[in-house]
# Entry
Amino acid sequence: MTKFSLSALVAAGLLAGGLATSANAADLGGNCCADLEERIAELEATTARKGNRKVSLTISGWVGQQVTAWDDGVESNVYVHDLGTTLGSHFKLTGSAQISAGWSAGYVLQIEAIGSDGLTTSQSVADGPALYNALGSGFAVNGLGGTQVLQSYWFVKSDHLGKVSVGKQSQASDNTAILVDGSGSLVPANWVAFDSNSFAIRNNGGVGIAWGGAQSCFGMGGAWGDCNGLTQNAVRYDSPTFGGFSVSASWGEDDFWDIAARYAGEHYGWKFAAAAAYNEVTDQNYNNILNGLGVAVPDMQYFQAGVYLQHIATGLFAMVNYGNLQVDDPVNLDSNPETWYLKAGLRLKCATLGATVFYGEYENGQDGGNGTNTNNIAGVNVDTEMEMFGLGVVQEIDAAAMSVWIKYRHQSYEDASIVSYDDFDYVGFGGLINF
# Structure
């Protein structure tokens, strides 16, 4: 037996002996010792054991799934899928240990367990493989799920000097703009093409580029404003928060660096949050897993910013995200894609279950089409426009640490050619439960 089991059983025996007479006299029924032993077994089954008595261990995460009914103008279908890599189902192990007054060390290990990645589903792939598996193998296999390491790093933290982290992790600029969103609708509604990334755009000549390429990051990792959106092996610094302000910076292989600044606070009955980040990729072979081994990627710089405002009394909120990517390509053609994302709505406590969030969203992407443009320059399309608008409702269920939603999105794409592209529409019903 473990020490925990032995101690618990001894305590149970003493408790059972001390209460036996009164329990029998009251004729409460049942066997008190059996009940206690059953409870001990339950506790042993649900208790996370740690390797030593100095470092804490916490297990957390969530499971999220969505049913999506889609129509690409030619074909329609219904899929059941996860929420997509970096947002998908996962569990996370975190812990820390006190070194001395004001100093601590810790770790984070986050494992994704995705049965069908929404980022890799398409007309021909109903059950999308995990994103990293698909990129690594160069093809998508129907039904291939994925368990993969999303984050694995250790850190040292000072209450006064900040935190330094080393390992695979989110960079300082990872999702900086969208994380200002405090509405409760961030998961179902943001500027990333989580549900339609790999779906091909139908056109009058057949099948063209994927929707993820309608506003591309040209190999930096991500699309639709989420450039530099995948975790990387990096060294990161996070400052302490002073008056609501904080800064972060990171460097990673091979080679990138970034810096970000954030603010959050409440003033005169309003919640306000703002963030901005800048990152550079300066190695021609950076992130070549996204493009095939040996294929060079141009130097790139990306700026992103986000602002969120909410009136506390009424729940009225609005958010703006902006992204600007500078592609310095000496072989093909320099380009400068820009992305805007707007969301507004109302967060109300109109049910005993929890808050209800009503929202509308709009996204516009200029000059980011990753196809062949009218000048026949492969890989860069300098005169394109992608638009998306949507509506949705999110219901929070506080007692279960859960939220459910239903949403609708309409996507369109056009360029300077004479090709006519079909729109893409879908309705998603999903849910997420935390643990």
Observations:
- The domain at 52-434 is CATH 2.40.160.10 (Porin).
